[in-house]
């Protein structure tokens, strides 16, 4: 098992070993590639619409770009670079993802990225200097390698399209004109409590005078309201009702939340439970020692009622459908919830053999190195 340096917080660890750090980022590069394929399978099954898959894959790609940037930042971790430089802080107890603080630092770096790039030699100059040092001095140009890795890191930040701590709401027109327009809003956040990416999609109808995206008053208010409610601990019912009651001419018809993670790995994480035992027993080849949990919550409007507003007016209010089958609809605050797990073939074989309690209702997406995805 890869050794990671624990911090006093116990739930975090520093990937201070060069090879462990590179294996960690290579693992997530494969995982994010598989996520897009899983989303395509969900679309084929009718679990996600084409538009939802387009939005979801854009966020997954943003997560991939974030890991690519962090991989450049920590490319020379553990080497003598001539200056103090830390290592990636990851959540080893719960999520398996980087700590929330890593994304906050990255956002600060992004704000100053162009300034950093202006003060550095370009990549070709650094590569030429590295070759010259190898030939003339016959030594590894570690400090030049570090300078190049930092330049590549800031170049990734300048390119943008990364997954930030907060990803503000965006609006997509679906259908309708004039009196009743239908949109999809989507936004995302990196939950600071559990260190996981969380993606939200809301379909709503707009009966306002102006189109929501062009309304200078309502649109900023909607964005601020939704970001303030983007907490993994809040039920979808709480978020949707709060939105419905705050905006009389906006009617949320469907709210979806996708939790990406936790990521389990026998080499990197210390989570407890059946999955840890499965991964330990699987002894999977390098790059296949992982499992990624995936939770999909959906809340849908069941019907509309009218409430009095003022002396003579009335406003529409949504009545949301809660899960009638599990008996826990009020507890989950959702119409339905699906838990899934994505994992390579060898860990799945061990999971199927052990068949631990609680996994019967969990959907399994089994991925192969060739990119094939099978659903069980």
Features:
376 residues; alpha+beta; 2 domains; nine-stranded mixed β-sheet; three-stranded antiparallel β-sheet
Description:
The strands form 2 sheets. Strands 4, 5, 6, 7, 8, 9, 10, 11 and 12 form a 9-stranded mixed beta sheet that branches. This protein has a 3-stranded antiparallel beta sheet with strand order 1-2-3. A hairpin with a 5-residue loop joins strand 11 and strand 12. The longest helix is centred in the N-terminal third of the chain and has 28 residues, at 18-45. The model has no long low-confidence stretch (mean pLDDT 87). It has 376 residues and is α+β, with helices and mostly antiparallel strands. Helix 9 packs across helix 11 (345-354). The chain is 39% helix and 27% strand. It is built from 11 helices and 12 strands. It folds into 2 domains: 5-159, no CATH class; 166-375, no CATH class.
Task: Give a topology summary.
Layout: E1 5-6, E2 12-15, H1 18-45, H2 50-73, E3 88-91, H3 100-111, H4 113-118, H5 123-137, H6 142-159, E4 166-175, E5 181-191, E6 196-206, H7 218-228, H8 236-246, E7 250-264, H9 274-282, E8 291-309, E9 313-321, H10 329-332, E10 336-344, H11 345-354, E11 363-367, E12 373-375
Parallel strand pairs: 10-11
Antiparallel strand pairs: 1-2, 2-3, 4-5, 5-6, 6-7, 7-8, 8-9, 8-10, 11-12
